[in-house]
Write a structure and sequence with these properties.
Elements lengths: L2 E5 L4 H11 L4 E6 L2 H15 L3 E5 L8 H12 L4 E4 L7 H5 L2 H29 L2 E6 L12 H21 L4 E8 L1 E2 L14 E2 L1 H14 L3 E4 L3 H9 L3 H4 L5
Parallel strand pairs: 1-2, 1-4, 2-3, 4-5, 5-6, 6-9, 7-8
Helix pairs in contact: 1-2, 1-7, 5-6
Length: 246
């Protein structure tokens, strides 16, 4: 039985992933902001897993609360085996372009708060000599594009940080997994027109996450074809790329 901490547990991808973990009888500690959603998800997971689920509501932008959160989770569960960091926002690119404070707030939520939690979890896992850290980044972090470069910059920071963390901890029994979804049909993307094969459902992403844990993967594009799409985008010459409206 695995003890699992999910941070940002009310996100659609986190909830779908928790349901898949629950099928194996995992024990959960959930952290998020929306009290009502947390309670509903916790009740559902208790039924699915047959185990009590502990929930905690907090603002993850407050970095000084992170050490105490992880300590409470560890004590409650008797140690954390798997931690999934899944919180984040999708900022308004146009608004961020006109406002340095909005840009910095988006980077704080989507990058700095994730890096804070990943650092603390990695150090805890290193002390124990085992553990799996999963963080959700995005294909948007692979190359800066005019349509979402604030969000992409934050996710790129997360991806690069996790890459270094993985390199540091690879020989110490710690698994660090970077999840890079493409377009996912969630409340966060409610304003988008969701048509075509590029759009995935949260459970499809969740299936990829649990498979990545079981198979010992490092960096996973979900669905799989995004690896090849982003490989093409990354290798477009800069002179040509500037003329594209991406």
């Amino acid at each position: 039985m695995r003890n699992i901490l999910i941070i940002g547990a009310t996100s659609a991808i986190a909830e779908a992933t928790a349901r898949r973990f629950a099928a194996s009888g995992a024990r959960f500690y959930l952290a998020g902001r929306n009290v009502e959603r947390l309670a509903a998800i916790a009740r559902d997971l208790e039924i699915r897993s047959g185990q009590p689920v502990v929930q905690e509501s907090l603002d993850l932008d407050e970095l000084d609360t992170h050490p105490a959160l992880l300590e409470r989770a560890s004590q409650t569960l008797g140690g954390i085996d798997v931690a999934l960091i899944a919180h984040g926002t999708l900022p308004d690119q146009q608004a961020c372009q006109q406002s340095a404070p909005l840009t910095l707030a988006a980077i704080h939520t989507n990058a700095l708060s994730v890096i804070s939690l990943a650092t603390l979890l990695a150090n805890s896992f290193e002390t124990r000599g085992r553990g799996t850290l999963i963080a959700i980044s995005s294909v948007a972090g692979d190359r800066g594009r005019q349509s979402n470069y604030v969000y992409g910059a934050a996710k790129g920071m997360v991806s690069l940080f996790l890459q270094g963390l993985r390199n540091r901890l690879s020989r110490k029994g710690i698994q660090v997994i970077t999840i890079k979804p493409g377009f996912v049909d969630t409340p966060m993307t409610a304003a988008f027109e969701k048509k075509g094969f590029l759009w995935a459902q949260p459970d499809h992403i969740a299936q990829g996450i649990t498979a990545a844990v079981d198979r010992g993967r490092d960096e996973v594009y979900l669905p799989w074809f995004w690896r090849w799409i982003m490989m093409l985008i990354v290798h477009i010459p800069e002179g040509m790329f500037k003329r594209l409206k991406l």
